[in-house]
Amino acid sequence: MDVNVAPNARSAWNDAMAILTSMGRRESLVCNGILPLTLETRLWLVEAGTIDVFAVEKGEGDRLGRRHHLHTVTGPGLLAGLGQASAHADVEILAVSRGATATVLDGSTLAAAPASAATQLPLAWLLDRWIEGMGTGLVRNFAPRSAHPLPLIAGANVTPTEGSVVAGHKGVTWAHLAAGSGRYMGIADMAADGISMIPLSPETWLAPVDGLAVAGYGSPGLLSTSNWWRHVQTFHDAYLLCLGLSLDNQRKMEGWRLEKRADKIADALGTTFGRFARLVGVSTDTTGGAGPDNALASACAIACRPLGITIEQSPQLIRRRGDDRPLTVEEVARAARIRARHVALRGEWWREDLGPLVAFSGDDGRPLAVVPDPKSGYRLHDPAQATEADLDEATAVSLSPMAWTFYAPLPDGPLSAMDLLRLGLRHQKRDVAVALAAGALGGFMGMMLPIATSSVFQTIIPGHHTSQLIQVGLALVMAAAASTIFKITGDVALLRIEGRIAGHLQAGIIDRLLRLPSSFFAAYSTGDLAQRTLTVEMVRKAMTGLVLSSFLAGVFSIFSLGLLFYYQPMTALVALLLLLLMLGFSVWVGARQLATLFEGEALSGNIVSLVLQLISSIQKLRVAGAEDRAFVLWGRNFAELRTRTAKSRRIANLHATVMAGWDILSLAVVFLVVSIAAGAKLETGQFLAFIAAFTLFMGSLTQVSRAVIQCFNVKPMIDRTKPLLEAVPEVDATKEDPGRLSGDIEVNNVYFRYDHESPRVLNGLTLQVRPGEFIALVGPSGCGKSTLMKLLLGFERPEAGGIFLDGHDLRTLDVQAVRRQVGVVLQAGRVMPGSIYENIKGAADATVDDCWEAARMAGLEDDIRAMPMGMHTMLTEGSAALSGGQVQRMLIARAVVSKPRLLLFDEATSALDNRTQAIVTESLSKLSVTRIAIAHRLSTVKDADRIYVLKDGRVIEAGNYDDLMAKNGLFSELARRQLT
């Protein structure tokens, strides 16, 4: 046990333990021995070892059923008998020893007289650990409290209003009901009778019922009274009542899980049978009636099905079953690890291709899935009413004007450019088929000109059938019109393909970028990474633009090549040889450009990064008078880039020059071959038809040649995007959802270094934080304070040791779900472009009132009200209108607006004056939240519950401010530097 946590002196603690053990009898509990906790007056003082406390369901014949873990008592600790609640006789509380030594005490005897001065503090600490641990086990199956918690502090009075609850603060606080009535955990009724008291931890609460007013007492003060054991028994009675409901909720949740599993199997079987039914032309409807939450999840699942996204009932949704708040689209999307966006349905939107949507009925707001249909435009699915129909104008107009659309994420593993192309074309089969068919039909229509030319000069003119020229002309006009229609159809299909790929691919890239680990961003500058991200779009344009159109041109050329072989096979072989020469020359030119393009892409990224750094540091450059040197640095790189660009363009000009004369040269070669090979055998009409087909053939191949050059130009871009595509996102679907964090943190023997060649930053760091505590980390620069912050946020992983949140290893948890419950303020944090409301709200689902409350807690309310537009005042990225202290307070407001379970501050108040810092500190102290702060100012760490002093990556001192100052160690040395 850390004596700095509870008793202030080890000797006093040992004396107190000796007094308490002398009042009972010592027992050695065998491993796996069962200890019923049904005797209300019995206490066990656990001196060593571990005992687990379980709630056990009793079956028929008093047979013991499943165990539900509530608490683990580790020596030194306290174990108490709870009795048996008559309302839940089917539940028994058992303790299972893992090999422990305990002293058995009688609670009534112990409580017959007030605790002595020697035993008061140790016994209070043991009692608080028991109450807090049991409370944590109780709330596991309760829905998160939606009401705002009012922290109860010993010596303070609290009068909760409707919509709020009273909770403990920094451990256990006893609530004395001075007036009115309330419900413990919203269940167990309690009324003011002059003596009623109930202990509250940061995790448990007391809800007001009728004019509730409570006063706070600490456990040491309670133990000085003669009836403290009665209050403990009152707590046990209320606990057992709430525990029964908690286990009932757990059974309902398990039943719901089994029900959903059965539904999932039934849905899978229905889908399979539906596929068999569709084989014989029978349409099936797989939707079914559902409640509001299930209807929304079903609507999202139906809407996401065309995108290849499968939405299942995930643990995150299951854990919310006890919550009375309705399910939202954002929660469904978050559980499915996809992105959702709110969109407005304007104008005649049902005539446009907006993709699948989740819309809402204008009458009752029930969720509906709107899915594109190639025949009718859109199909409307109503999971709540189990109906499906075509979407007509009247129904479309009646829908709510706001809807949701979804974006499919890219696969989590490493990707290549071809993977992106395949993913982009995955749901484009219909448009690809249309484009290919249009190209083929256009090529077929293109054959009409050579054929008509042959007919005119071979038959019509020699035979003086001039009247047939009109028919041939009309046929050519019709062929031209058909070719135009096919060309437009193909281009529209290509545009649809390009538009869909662009939207979903770019969204997928940004989503992937946001999910990459922080170590990835440390390897690239902001400008370089931004250019690499945009390069993906440039590659997409090249691949879906010129390359796809050139592919269609290649399809078109096949028909012209067939005519060449039909009219003159030998000369057609020469045309193929010319084709190979053209492509070979294009490959040579592209290869010559490649090295230059590689260097140019790297230089371009460096220049973009340099320009961004120069712009963001313009004030510093002016102060230092370094504008000329900055310009020289930029000019050197830019001149080198222009040199590379000029070299690449010279090679490109060579290709353009050769291609300009290639058509004439090709015709000359054809004339020569025809004169030698065919001679008098080739008739005039056939010759002219051959030339016409050859001209069409070479025109199409010119586009193919340009596509070859474009492919070489794209190669350096693809290599630039490889780090972005090959990096693996940190989100893992196999990671466990953390649930609702209590704020309990354990850092156990952690070692860490940033890479294998660098020295260790943390060397066996160990510390523990209990829920609701305020912990300060101090120490010289480079001791590992900020590194520990990164580890707590999951940005880095320990080399050895572990970090545990509520007993769960952080490496096994979904870090994004953890971060959503953590508020972070960094010293170098900046505001975002936008309004003050948007800056405080951030990514939280907060209202304007919530933002005002957060601003009030951060001491920023008066500053905002003095601004022209109040909460809606617009800010720029440079935040020139705000002082450093105002920026820090806005960041603090952003951190607390979502009511996180854990707050991490890294020099978050360094720019605040003492008065403002006092306001912020007082406001934060009233929150039921765990705080960890890195600070050097004494005024910041003085009120901390515990201060950890770090040096060389390990804890060398721990305790509160007074204890550390009395030790005359490193902390007192650092503090005296400020005091002098």
TrEMBL record:
Record carries keyword DNA damage: no
Boundaries of every ABC transporter domain copy: 745-977
Cellular component GO terms, alphabetical: plasma membrane
Membrane disposition: Multi-pass membrane protein
InterPro entries for the chain: AAA+_ATPase (IPR003593), ABC1_TM_dom (IPR011527), ABC1_TM_sf (IPR036640), ABC_transporter-like_ATP-bd (IPR003439), NHPM_micro_ABC2 (IPR022515), P-loop_NTPase (IPR027417), Type_1_exporter (IPR039421)
Alphabetized UniProt keyword annotations: ATP-binding, Cell membrane, Membrane, Nucleotide-binding, Transmembrane, Transmembrane helix, Transport
Signal peptide (residue range): none
Spans through the membrane: 432-457, 469-490, 546-567, 573-591, 654-680, 686-709
Compartment annotation: Cell membrane
Key word Nucleotide-binding present: yes
Gene3D superfamilies xref list: ABC transporter type 1, transmembrane domain (1.20.1560.10), P-loop containing nucleotide triphosphate hydrolases (3.40.50.300)
PROSITE patterns per record: ABC_TM1F (PS50929), ABC_TRANSPORTER_2 (PS50893)
Lineage top rank: taxon: Bacteria
Domain spans labelled ABC transmembrane type-1: 433-710
One MF term in the entry's GO annotations: ATP hydrolysis activity
Protein name as annotated: ABC transporter
